[in-house]
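Field: COMPLEX_INPUT
Field: COMPONENT_COUNT = three
Field: RESIDUE_TOTAL = 1074
Field: MODE = joint
Values follow.
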Amino acid sequence: MNDVKTRDMTKESAGNFFEDFKLGQEIVHATPRTVTVGDVSLFTALYSSRFAVQSSDAFAQAIGYPVAPIDDMLVFHLVLGKTVPDISRNAIANLGYADLRFLKPVYPGDTLASTTEIIGLKENSNRKNGTVYVRSTGRNQRGEPVLSFARWVMVNKRDESSPAPEPHVPELIAQVEASRLGHALPMLNLEAYDYALAGSSKKWGDYQVGDKIDHVDGQTIEEAEHQLATRLYQNTARVHFNQHIEAQGRFKRRIVYGGHVISIARALSFNGLANAFHVAAINGGRHVAPSFAGDTIYAWSDVIDKAELPGRSDMGALRLRLFAVKDRNCADFPGRRADGSYEDGVVLDLDCWVALPR
Amino acid sequence: MNDVKTRDMTKESAGNFFEDFKLGQEIVHATPRTVTVGDVSLFTALYSSRFAVQSSDAFAQAIGYPVAPIDDMLVFHLVLGKTVPDISRNAIANLGYADLRFLKPVYPGDTLASTTEIIGLKENSNRKNGTVYVRSTGRNQRGEPVLSFARWVMVNKRDESSPAPEPHVPELIAQVEASRLGHALPMLNLEAYDYALAGSSKKWGDYQVGDKIDHVDGQTIEEAEHQLATRLYQNTARVHFNQHIEAQGRFKRRIVYGGHVISIARALSFNGLANAFHVAAINGGRHVAPSFAGDTIYAWSDVIDKAELPGRSDMGALRLRLFAVKDRNCADFPGRRADGSYEDGVVLDLDCWVALPR
Amino acid sequence: MNDVKTRDMTKESAGNFFEDFKLGQEIVHATPRTVTVGDVSLFTALYSSRFAVQSSDAFAQAIGYPVAPIDDMLVFHLVLGKTVPDISRNAIANLGYADLRFLKPVYPGDTLASTTEIIGLKENSNRKNGTVYVRSTGRNQRGEPVLSFARWVMVNKRDESSPAPEPHVPELIAQVEASRLGHALPMLNLEAYDYALAGSSKKWGDYQVGDKIDHVDGQTIEEAEHQLATRLYQNTARVHFNQHIEAQGRFKRRIVYGGHVISIARALSFNGLANAFHVAAINGGRHVAPSFAGDTIYAWSDVIDKAELPGRSDMGALRLRLFAVKDRNCADFPGRRADGSYEDGVVLDLDCWVALPR
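Field: COMPLEX_OUTPUT
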């Protein structure tokens, strides 16, 4: 690892600006974090996810896990949260995700830490800001990668007169090939998988490309809830926490962490996808509009592809577009129009692979 | 178990309606749940219960528990919560509870699952809805019953023209006989029970039938709090979570889960009943009026009976009417009038047996 | 221990009034409490503290801890919380703290209990209330002291005509000598201390007396958050919880527990003091003004002294004035004026010793 960036030119930090990033630079993020059953309980209190594998040690052990694994999205939030003080504290916008893959299961007691490589830089023509492309990796206490993803954010410059770096835009894949899925999924004994306890008899084979699934329920977000969530992830992006500043901002309000909305939608998706207990990959995601306290989030899924998983006959993958929609139920499947615009209320368009028993 | 009901005629579920239930049917509810110290901490943060046995491993071990047992009401909320998606998701009203008994202690690491038998059905004369009587049982990972209770709920019909089932109203006992109490209470070494640490020197013998105890303090409910609680219990009743729908409803607001109010009242009851660390049974309960965010809950107890516990001299039982009252302190013991109506502010009338050292 | 006070002259308790306290009296407080990883997760969700030692078992073990220790302020809140029902339930004001020292590390699984000695009493000339001086001690399940502190509170009399006690004002030290610090800090292997993971390369030697450090970020407080926190600590002071009463009070609102503000400020101080992972002592503290839901808390630190720790070359101490300020960022270091008054917005002035690697 060369050119390790220190975060403390002064003792306190206002975060990095566009000109602080250098192509190829690797950043070790602060504050490794041991994940515990306490985090699991809070995650349940925040989203009420009901996937049996993550909820029950007994269920997980019956099918071959040593203990209930940590919810994939909790792993994502923790790994991402560590990158925020260095990468996106001064971000104007989170522009996208790509090639997000879960690589190892995480269990209570594991300690997660994050590193990020700067894989692209491109100053905008306004010279006020630019896009930073990164690949972040979460590792456990044995140094094994558990999660890897690319993302790109628009970051302000500290000084408009700073020279622009050589532009470099990395090639980012639009979807994770099914052949690369499944690394975080141990071989499972599905003989012991109890479909009544799991909440549905529907398996991989029961879903078809083109299926649209309304997840029915809605969840209203409170300020205290999204703040508790985002602090749990040690994510320091100030737009989520500081009403004193946000009252002067564009929305006059704190903005809900986009990952909070993802987790609400994922938890709601249990109703209709009860056996899709594992998120194998995220191909891309777009926070179509911000969410605020008081919004009620609904969700629906569009099954856009199906695939076998390499070398295994126990589990299969579905590629979903998971839409979160605010203050509007999803019986009519509000999504993206042919012209690329979104229907009213859509706040999230997430393209992901989930795995479920065959 | 015959006639197991599946929850997925379609992939997603809108819950069961009155005509979906059949007498004698048994339902295996989804999502077994491992209870952990994380749940215990959240329960403390939600209610601040101060019973020493549940708060301290050291205290519990001194008197003979392997470790601090899980609070009885947390066990109840978890077992009940699992039944909601199948039983009461479309309930108009929770009409009552009966014969609720705790049967085994639950410890961190235990996994709870729930099943329900339909024990009665009676369509209402309006033909729009009917009463469903059920007995639900919570079991641990060894299949041992830890909690059993009857309840009855009014549920809408999907289709008013559906034929009415043969009416069957089960006999439900009005009170649990003292001879059936105590199964969840191991034999204890009360020599080691430290009354100073427990918070009071008052034992079973110090209470008399007719005692009225004001629990003094009040707790104001916030939206985020009751939502966190109810999600922690994986209870999906939408009236608690969905302001987008409830804004159009009768109250214009989300309704607080009745069990949340029970747990507030139970926690407040520490002040006056500090040694009544175990709820042995609930004879019946009535949510007299709904509670909402912003309400301040007070509580008081009326000692209506006393009993020895079968085969043991260490512990005795008090039968309490535990009243929760909103926005009114309980110095004047507001309860039920002679005509059966309730005094202003009463939201809960819970008839229960608690156990305390003799 | 002589003259143990019982809390239950009646079964319920309205707390102690000024005339209930006696010089030399020792009070055993109710409800020992096992601290768990569940509490740690809630603490993270409430404050988002990012000190690596408390966040990561792996980090803590590398430098010589058996496991990540419990955050010092969580220990303080739990030990203090137990004293509230007996000491400060009827307090009009928390007047001050002195000589607060952490004496042993606390780990998940430890059980904390508190005792208090009455070390001073002085009735006010108005005869309506008086000052009670106490020394409280928190002990673990082995009876080892983990925390000791003096505090003094103004408490109402039950009856103005009660005779005044002989006045006794104890001598309280204005600062903990550095020679008395470090008892809760095991000898550490700082070879293994990873400054990149800790979030800063700044060590003890990099700070100078006179340094002023803006901690940059702000945190907006929600009602649900401070209530969850204060209940987690089993602190029963009613001003924090009961809007029904407080609506009639001086502020018309619930008052945020002062310790909640301390923990927000302490967590914010990570930005600028990332290696100051241990609070060794609190010399004194003043809640300059109350905080309420909706306030945004910022913080800054003034380095007012430096000291070596007795008998060790691995760690050193900084004496800080940690100021919390509401609805005002701290770039201009708002603090105390020469005339002793405070600048606008200051809510907390905490004088403490923190320890960090040399």
